[in-house]
């Protein structure tokens, strides 16, 4: 019998996708967020609408049976709700997980249910749930006596979540426009007592092929379109994809990552090609007003070691493959500086202005100077530094 699912982050993917599947599986969804106005809107609404848009037209559904807690003021309520919940999910952004670890740890410590809590982080990050678990079990957040019996109180599953949910217009209230495609893969191996019943999840034994395929195909192509688009003054991703040069850049980047996905995992070249074709058509969807600045947001995260550019490029360079297109994408990401509302883009500009190229390259990408990718990235850092002096 489904009960309560606590979801941290009532934003685009939280309201637009995770809550949808939890709701359809019979859970009451309790959103936890920190934005006063959003919390009020959720608590004043009985339902909101999700609309899928694509070439086949529009399809809408109503989401009901939810409420929200503001963790800025009502942490006790958050902890009490988690103590009696079945599932905790989050989609707050990888860098925000450190702020939600303590209430989850306290909720686990206060468990009143005998079945362990299922914890699934839904962030675009390799092994996001493992990272969240590490934060939850940090001695600052969890006492040793709770940690000792953790397996009886909570179980954890890594996940790869894929659905494009753009930033919604200001007048949309809680309603969300999304694409029809979705895939949510969750690893079973941490759920010793059985995984939760959530409709639509694809349960897998080993998540690595799924998360690498997703991050290094969907997000690599998306980010390539976003950074090239932004630097050409183009507003949306579908407009960027309508530019023949940018479309070509996206294809070339995906040809490179395909070598890694098919070479490393049990995914044939034909399967990967089909996957690529689907992605290209998804990100070209003219019905989704997805802006380049959303998709390019947080460039420091996106340039980091295991992320959508350096992650595949480093592994390909180690295997002797060409990574020219991915490196051109990195250059465009380096040029995503001082973008309004994006703190990381301001920090990126400062790093590139204040540090010698060698130091900046290592700081931004985590690559050591002896890595086969390092010199190629260093050249781009030098180029961008000299252009933005
Ligand atoms: N939008 C997509 O297409 C999509 C798809 C797959 C995965 N994701 C991933 O999901 C995550 C969220 O993305 P999004 O697009 O929904 O972003 P978003 O900005 O729309 O939503 C994030 C929400 O988290 C809330 N938040 C911030 N700090 C918080 C805190 N301390 N406690 C609780 N809530 C807090 C914000 O107020 C916001 O409502 C990211 O990791 C993203 O990579 C997004
Ligand atoms: O959410 P980010 O910042 O990691 O990446 C931006 C987009 O590429 C991303 O949100 C996609 O829309 C999503 O990953 C599709 O499943």
UniProtKB/TrEMBL annotation:
E.C. number: 1.1.1.17
Print the keywords alphabetically: NAD, Oxidoreductase
| One Gene Ontology cellular component annotation held by this UniProt entry | cytosol
The Mannitol dehydrogenase C-terminal domain extends over 206-348
Q: Name one GO molecular function term.
A: mannitol-1-phosphate 5-dehydrogenase activity
Q: Among the record's GO biological process terms, what is one?
A: mannitol catabolic process
> Does the keyword field hold Chaperone?
no
Q: What reactions does this protein catalyze?
A: D-mannitol 1-phosphate + NAD(+) = beta-D-fructose 6-phosphate + NADH + H(+)
Recorded superkingdom: Eukaryota
What is the enzyme's main class?
oxidoreductase
Q: Where is the Mannitol dehydrogenase N-terminal domain?
A: 5-199
Entry's family note: Belongs to the mannitol dehydrogenase family.
Q: How does it assemble?
A: Monomer.
HAMAP family from the UniProt entry: Mannitol_dehydrog
The protein, known as: Mannitol-1-phosphate 5-dehydrogenase
Query: Could you tell me which species this protein originates from?
Result: Capronia coronata CBS 617.96
Q: What is the lineage of its organism?
A: Eukaryota, Fungi, Dikarya, Ascomycota, Pezizomycotina
């Amino acid at each position: 019998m489904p009960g309560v699912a606590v979801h941290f982050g009532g934003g685009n993917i939280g309201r637009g996708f995770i809550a949808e599947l939890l709701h359809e599986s019979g859970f009451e969804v309790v959103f936890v967020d920190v934005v006063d106005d959003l919390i009020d809107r959720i608590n004043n609404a009985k339902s909101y609408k999700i609309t899928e848009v694509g070439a086949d037209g529009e399809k809408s559904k109503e989401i009901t049976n939810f409420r929200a807690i503001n963790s800025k003021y009502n942490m006790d309520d958050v902890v009490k709700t988690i103590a009696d919940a079945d599932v905790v999910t989050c989609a707050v952004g990888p860098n925000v997980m450190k702020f939600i670890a303590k209430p989850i740890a306290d909720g686990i410590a206060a468990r009143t249910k005998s079945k362990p809590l299922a914890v699934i982080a839904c962030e675009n990050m390799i092994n996001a749930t493992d990272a969240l678990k590490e934060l939850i079990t940090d001695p600052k957040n969890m006492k040793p006596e709770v940690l000792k019996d953790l397996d009886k109180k909570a179980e954890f599953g890594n996940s790869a979540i894929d659905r494009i949910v753009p930033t919604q217009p200001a007048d949309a209230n809680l309603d969300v426009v999304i694409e029809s495609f979705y895939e949510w893969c969750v690893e079973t191996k941490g759920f010793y007592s059985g995984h939760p019943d959530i409709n639509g999840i694809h349960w897998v034994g080993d998540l690595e092929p799924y998360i690498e395929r997703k991050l290094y195909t969907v997000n690599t192509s998306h980010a390539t379109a976003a950074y090239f688009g932004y630097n050409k003054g183009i507003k949306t991703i579908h407009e960027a994809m309508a530019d023949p040069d940018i479309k070509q850049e996206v294809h070339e980047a995906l040809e490179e990552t395909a070598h890694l996905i098919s070479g490393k995992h049990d995914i044939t070249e034909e399967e990967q090609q089909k996957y690529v074709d689907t992605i290209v058509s998804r990100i070209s969807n003219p019905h989704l007003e997805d802006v380049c600045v959303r998709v390019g947001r947080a460039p420091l995260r996106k340039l980091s070691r295991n992320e959508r550019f350096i992650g595949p490029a480093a592994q390909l360079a180690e295997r002797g493959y060409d990574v020219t297109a991915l490196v051109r994408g990195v250059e465009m990401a380096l040029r995503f500086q001082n973008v309004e509302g994006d703190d990381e883009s301001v920090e990126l500009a400062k790093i590139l202005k204040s540090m010698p190229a060698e130091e900046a390259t290592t700081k931004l990408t985590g690559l050591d100077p002896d890595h086969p990718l390092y010199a190629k990235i260093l050249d781009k850092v030098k180029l961008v530094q000299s252009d933005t002096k």
